[in-house]
Each structure stands twice: as structure tokens, then as C-alpha cells.
Predict the 3D structure of the following.
Amino acid sequence: MLKVYKSSARPSEVSSQALGIFVFEGKIEESLKELEGLGKRVKKQAEHEHFTGKKESMLKVTFPEGPIPRVFLVGLGQESKARIDDYRVAAAIITKAALESHAGELYLYSPKINPPISQALAEGALLGAYRFDRYKTDGRKEEGKRGIDDLYIINGDDDDIERGVLFACGQNYARDLANEPPNLVNPATLAKAAVDLAEDMGLECEIYDEVELERMGMNALLAVGRGSANPPRLIHLTYKPSSRPLKKIALVGKGLTFDSGGLDIKTSENMRTMKGDKTGACVVLGAMRSLVKLDLPMEVHALIGAVENMPSGSSYKPDDIIKTYTGKTIEIDNTDAEGRVTMADVLGFASKLNPSCMVDIATLTGGCAVALGPYRAGIFANDQALCNALLDASSFTGEMLWQLPMDDERLRKRLDSPFADVANSAGRYGSAITAAMFLREFVPEDIPWAHIDIAGVSYYKEPFGYYSSGISGFGTRTILQWLYRLQ
Ligand code: BES
Ligand code: MN
Ligand code: ZN
């Protein structure tokens, strides 16, 4: 595993297998002046290659005989426009390049390194180095093992670095678990992963199986799992601080270990990547894993409905009417709108814990991706202060969020059912909004609640920035940053 340290070495004194240097556009001198002789030679190369520090540009310069055989220059773009996330992306670009050139050790030097920047650099490096290759048998895995062992951030801040490592490891844990294929991670094995996590981190853990769920009246969660040979589980993890908690937070994650659509079956194109429908759950678990070490003064509960949505003779059906855990009834309009049905029971259960606030995260609607594009998640809330706090955290983590409205009463009417309290789908138009309005039905008005729809951002086919191909783990760091600032 890549370890990250601060270094107090002067850049000109560094002797290492690789050095990464951050450059603002047009300000290469500023980045190289502390490097003395080496700096002059690097500058010549940069001029020759027309490297000026444009955002996301990279130049590799090698000195096979020197004390630093590989120097990587990475562009941050114009200084006045550079944002904190640009540092993460730049750190990821350098880390990937250093990995490719088989460096076992890497130093990072940024001329500007005020506090939060070292957190971002540690995050970018660890996120950028991530890949999901444990099932590759062709030796790539072995090669990966010979990756970077030690990363040094010159003039970094110890606490910032530690937090960056913690947040990125939480996100990488979420990625690892959500990237697991659906033949290996089903509701029971997802629950097992939660049990292992709880044991490792000293969390309380309760798993409810299908028999207990029946007894509890978790009929919505059970209905969605009815068609599968792998029955559902409810996962409940609890973090308790050492002193009397100031607040009680509930985190709820959608844990569809596979979403075939059920009887309203998806097309083969749309079904592909639906192993990722458990990402919300994995993000919640990743956040739980990391928050333990933040030493937070509040109690945090994680609640996950783990379930597989499959078509079969025992599947739940369109027209079914289900009595949920809260007592409210749902008429099924579309079995592919299963996430909200499972979340109805889990949000209801979480509300009974009487939390001071509740945040759920879910790959809920393709409509959210249509509305906001593939790089920004939607956020909905019944409490503007909670929403603002999450938006604020997200502007630091680079996990972009955009608030969508839930105040359109006419749109809400489309969820009315002639036979039950609410229908589970209201058609294509505004589907991210109607899905959020559906969830709202299962949250008491006096509990501040926010819902984050990550359907568009949870899975990337092509790598970019600090994301590899596959699950992004989007949301993990925003939840952690929000909790960290809340204390
Ligand atoms: N898991 C999907 C949403 C999704 C789509 C996640 C694409 C990731 C990528 C969800 O269960 C679903 O199928 N939603 C439907 C709802 C519709 C039937 C009302 C959708 O968004 O099309
Ligand atoms: Mn679905
Ligand atoms: Zn789904």
C-alpha cells in the first residue's frame, strides 16, 4: 500500500526515484527556482517541448544518471483559476505516470502548499493509483504490486495528509466493494463485508435476515428481493464516540447488489454495469470505515438494504400493493423503480432511531444523469441548512452536487395511486425529482434529511482525472468532509 509522508527536504536536496512538480500556466520559473541546477535543465526541456503548465498537461524529463532519474511536470492551468480539485487531478496524473515508469518512491513539490492543498494531493495520489485488477491473472496484478511504496509531499502538513489518506482510503474501499461482480457480492456477502468492517474498526453491527425482516414488517425490502435466489439483508452499523454524543446521524445507502429491472426487465445495454447499483451502500460503508479515525463526537448509524432485483416466478409485480415498514402502502407501477421501494423501508427504519439528521445516497434514477450530466450528482433536501452544509463540503471535495427542487405540487400528484397511498413511479419527466418526492413520503417532516442521487456519477467506463474505469466512489469524501466540519 502506498504510504504518504510529509518531507521537509529542500527541493534541491531531494534524491529520489521520481519527483513531481506542479506548475501554474506561464509560471514555470516559480516552480523550478528552488531546484537550482536540475531546475535549469528541466526548464530547457520544458521550453523545447513547449510545456507551459496548461491544465492537465504533463511532461516527463529523465536524467538516468542523476539523483532524480525522473522528473514529471504537471500543469495546474492559470493560477487565478486553479481550484482545489485541480491539485487532486494533477497529483493523480503524476502518480499514474510514476507508476507507469516503475518508480518505487515519489516526491511531490508544489510552490503553493497552504493547508488544504496537502490533503488534496494525498487524496489525488491515492485515488489516481487505484485500479480494480484483482481478477486479472495475466501478471498485471504482480506489476501493480511493484508500485509506489512511499510518497513524500514537500512542506506538507501532517494532519492534512493524514486526513487526505483517510478520506481516499474510504473512497477506495467503497470502489473495491462496489466493483466486485454480482456473482460474488450478493445481499448475504455484502452483509458479511459489513460484519468484517465492523470487526476491523470496532463498530457495532446488526444484520437482519429474511426471517427477521418478515417479522419486522420490512415488506418493501422483501418484495424487491422476492424474485431472487439470494434473499435480502438489512445492515445496521453504529459508531459511538467515547464521550456522550452531541448528535445522532443516520446514513442510508441503496444496496442493490444487482438490478436487472425485475419483471420490467432492462435492455441488455442498460443492465450492464448494474452491479454498481450497490454503490450508495458501499459509499456509506467506506465513510463508516474512515470516520472511526476522525474521532467524531457524534453517533453515526449506517443503514443499508441489501437486495437483488431479479425476474422470476416469485418476483414482485406491477400492480402489487405493498404495506411498508412505516405502514404506508405502495402500488408498484414499475418493478425497475426498485431502489425507492427498498429505501422506503430503510428510511422508515432509520427514522425510528430518531436521528438529528439523515443523509441517503443512492444510484436512484437515470433521469438524474439526464438532468445534470455524468459529472454532477443531484441533491434534494427538506432542510436548507443541511443541504447547504453538504454543498459546502462538496465544493471542497470536488464531488460536484446540484440541488434539485421538490416543491412542485403538480408533479407530486403524478405519484398518486388510485388504490394505495403512493405509486412507485411517475413516468420519465422529472423522474429524479419524483423519486426524491417518493422517498420524502417515508421521512418524518421534523427530521432534517438530504438525498443524494449518484446514478450518473457512480460508474465511469473510461478513466479521467483521479477516476479509474469502473466505480468512482463518488460521495464518500463529501460525506466525510461534511461530518468532519460538523463536529
Ligand atoms: N438503478 C437504476 C438507476 C440507474 C440508471 C443507476 C443508470 C445507474 C445508471 C434504478 O433502479 C432505475 O432503474 N431507475 C429507473 C426508474 C424508472 C423505472 C422510473 C430509471 O431511472 O430509468
Ligand atoms: Mn431499477
Ligand atoms: Zn436500481
